[in-house]
Amino acid sequence: MKKRHLLAPGPTPVLPDALLAMARPILYHRGPEYEALLASVREGLKFLFQTKNEVLLFTSSGTGGMEGTVVNTLSPGDRAVVIRSGKFGERWGEICEAYGLQPCYIDVEWGRAVEPDLVAAALAADPSIKAVFATHTESSTGVIHDIEAIARIVGRTPAILVVDAIMSLGVANLPMDAWGVDVVVGGSQKGLMIPPGLAFCAVSDKGWAMVQQSRLPKFYFNFLAERKSLEKNQNTFTPAVSLVMALHESLAAIRAEGLTALFARHDRLARATRA
Ligand SMILES: Cc1ncc(COP(=O)(O)O)c(C=O)c1O
User: Fold this and answer.
1) Is the C-alpha dihedral spanning 68, 72, 75, 80 positive or negative?
2) 61 C-alpha to center of ligand 1: Å?
3) Is residue 188 in a domain?
4) 225 CA → ligand 1 middle, Å
5) pLDDT digits (tens, 9 = 90+) for 63-75
6) Ligand 1 within 6 A of 62 CB?
7) How far, in Å, are 21, 98, 168, 234 from residue 35 at the CA level?
8) Does 187 contact ligand 1 (Cβ within 6 A)?
9) In terms of Cα–Cα distance, which of 124, 152, 147, 126 is closest to 135?
10) Is the pLDDT confidence value at 8 over 90?
11) How many CA atoms lie within 13 A of 100 on its CB side?
């Protein structure tokens, strides 16, 4: 077969070991072999997200993880801040509006990163703000936002910081526990080097407290139900088993390389591309 090179921000070329894993016979998702695989994947995801908390896994594209986060953290009438600096920042707003919320927008010129002081000002102007929705790397412009500085600001308030890291997961450093980020959403088809079809949501203790109180309607993307299933090495609904088998290979490769080397390699490639 002709070798193809995908040079898009995602889907990215798939790791050969992940391709081979997907060619293996399917596992029964309620059987012991799958449970052992999922146990290992859970540990690998915690390593990648740099968190002690559970990382939820859904069979959906990344946007499913974004929608799941909105409906599992907020309630009708809640106030939220959405940072819009590109296509994917806009998506946070579209999801909030689809559920009847009226977010307060921080509009940033496309191609620029948000000034963290603007987030502080928005939170000071409305102390009832429950959540700030941000993007780590905005794929539509190539801009990386200073999530560490934004997390410091949001961390001083009762609001949670939700970050779309669908592009940056496994590419740029985002130590969620150390920085105090409350929800990180990822996807399978970019830095993880496996095909599209899985979304990830990692939630902090502060985030889980919001999840307990959230009253927006939800069914498939139910964070509490999914965490309960994962604790038994199960998924609530039939997962994309072959993708989870591929994920297992990709997480093993990432762990073998180490996060510092991984992020340095991506930085080197990014600088080479720009040069
Ligand atoms: C930063 C960012 N957010 C969200 C998405 C949407 O993810 P998906 O297409 O997997 O739903 C993408 C995908 O390109 C992205 O790059």
Assistant:
1) negative
2) 8
3) yes
4) 24
5) 999 999 999 999 9
6) yes
7) 16, 36, 28, 6
8) yes
9) 147
10) no
11) 9
CATH of the domain at 83: 3.40.640.10
Number of Cβ atoms within 10 Å of the Cβ of 59: 18
Q: How confident is the model at residue 46 (pLDDT cuts 50, 70, 90)?
A: very high
Assess if residue 256 is contained within a domain.
yes
Total domains, the chain? 1
- Rounded to the nearest integer, the mean pLDDT of the chain is 97
Find the 23 Cα to ligand 1 centroid distance in Å: 26
Task: Give 111-159 as a DSSP string.
Answer: TS---HHHHHHHHHH-TTEEEEEEESEETTTTEE--HHHHHHHHTTSS-
How many other CB atoms are there within 10 angstroms of residue 272's CB atom?
A: 8
Does residue 3 form part of some domain?
A: no
pLDDT in tens, 87-141: 999 999 999 999 999 999 999 999 999 999 999 999 999 999 999 999 999 999 9
Q: pLDDT tens digits, residue range 261-272?
A: 999 999 999 999
Question: How far apart are alpha carbons 58 and 163 in whole angstroms?
Answer: 17
Q: Which domain holds residue 266?
A: 16-20+33-274
* Beta-strand relationship, 79-84 and 104-107: parallel
Asked if residue 61 has its Cβ within 6 Å of ligand 1, the reply is: yes
Ligand 1: which atom is nearest the Cα of residue 187? Answer: 10
How far apart are alpha carbons 224 and 239 in whole angstroms? 17
Nearest ligand 1 atom to alpha carbon 139: 16
**Ligand 1 pocket mutation pick from 87, 139, 145 by most atoms within 8 angstroms of CB:** 139
Among 233, 236, 232, 240, which residue's Cα sits nearest to residue 223? 236
Q: 218: which 2 tokens?
A: 């939800």
- Looking at residue 95, its amino acid is I
